[in-house]
């Protein structure tokens, strides 16, 4: 069973939504620079790509924690498995 209150669940969902919106903005920037050729544009694309990868990792790790706290053990374990394969997590 969950040890999170309804308020905590709502806060977590809103946090995920905000992180996902930020990740989508980063993805748009990377996509816009897909055909970059100048060193400056390539550097900018790399910077946004790295930020997007960090946001992906943050979303995944946060998912493991929140899903586990909500009592959604199988979903948390699935996310943990992906995080472990990505080298982001060592224990649940």
UniProtKB/TrEMBL annotation:
Organism domain of life: Bacteria
Name of the protein this chain belongs to: Uncharacterized protein
Highest classification ranks of the organism: Bacteria, Bacillati, Actinomycetota, Actinomycetes, Kitasatosporales
Taxonomic source organism: Streptomyces nigrescens
């Amino acid at each position: 069973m969950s040890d999170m209150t309804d308020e905590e669940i709502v806060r977590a969902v809103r946090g995920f939504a905000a992180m996902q919106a930020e990740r989508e903005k980063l993805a748009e920037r990377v996509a816009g620079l897909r055909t970059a050729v100048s060193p400056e544009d390539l550097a900018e694309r790399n910077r946004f790509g790295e930020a997007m990868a960090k946001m992906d990792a943050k979303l995944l790790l946060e998912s493991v924690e929140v899903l586990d706290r909500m009592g959604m053990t199988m979903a948390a374990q699935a996310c943990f498995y992906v995080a472990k394969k990505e080298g982001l997590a060592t224990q649940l």
